[in-house]
C-alpha cells in the first residue's frame, strides 16, 4: 500500500490560467499523491471568492485529493525588514484600517481551508528587525499590533476548526523566530496556535541543530514544509538532493504532535512535471520510511 503523501500545489510555479491549475492537480494525483498543500497566492493581497473555493474543492474531489493545510498570506508585498510606509493589507500594521484588512485576508484563507477540508493554515510573521535596531520602542509597538490581530482571529479560527501555524523563516535573525514561537505558544491555546516546521529554512539557520529545535518545539508542530538545500540557498530541492540528514529529522518529527501525511514544499526546475512528481513521490516515500522506522524504536 502506497503512503499517503502531500505536495505543494505551486511545485511548478503559479499559473493564473485555470486549465493549468486543474492540470497540476490531475498530475499530482496521477503521481500517487493523496494530499495537496494549497500554496497558490501564498503572498500578496489576493482575496478568493467563495466560488473559487468551491471550484478548487470540486477539482480536488474529481482527482481524489485531500487538503493538508494551506499557505496563507502575510498581506501586501513589501520590504518586511524595515518599516517604510503602509500597505493595503497587513495584519501587523499600526494603521488600523490596514491592520483589519490584513486580518480579513487571513480570515479569507481560513474560509478557504475550511472549504477544502484543511485543519491549519501556514502564516509568515516577519518583523522589521533592521528598523528595530534604531527605534528601540518599535518592537513593543509592533508586537502589540500582532497580538491585536491574533486576538481577533482566535474566535474565528476556533469556530472554523482551523489552526494558525507560524513558519520559521530564514531571512530574519534566529532570535526573532524563536522569540516569536516562545511568545505565541505561551500566549495562545494549542487548539488555535502552533508551528509550521519548514525543514529547509531550519537547515539554513540551524544546520545540525535542526533536530534539537524540532525536539524543543515538538508539542506544537502541526504543519511541515519538507524540502532540501545545501545550507546557503533556499532551493526547495527534493529531500535527498541536498545535505540534510533526513533520518535525524524524521526521528524527531515522529516524536512530535505532527499528524501525517508528510508534505513536500518543493520546486520543479527543467524536467517535465510528470518526471518531477514521480521523483518527488519516491523522495516522500523514503521520508515516510524513516518516519515509520523511528516510530518502531
TrEMBL record:
PANTHER family: HYDROXYPYRUVATE ISOMERASE, XYLOSE ISOMERASE-LIKE TIM BARREL DOMAIN-CONTAINING PROTEIN. InterPro entries: IolE/XylAMocC-like, Xyl_isomerase-like_sf, Xyl_isomerase-like_TIM-brl. It comes from Candidatus Blautia merdavium. This is Sugar phosphate isomerase/epimerase. The keyword Metal-binding does not apply. Keywords: Isomerase. GO terms for molecular function: isomerase activity. Residues 25-268 form the Xylose isomerase-like TIM barrel domain. Pfam families: AP_endonuc_2 (PF01261).
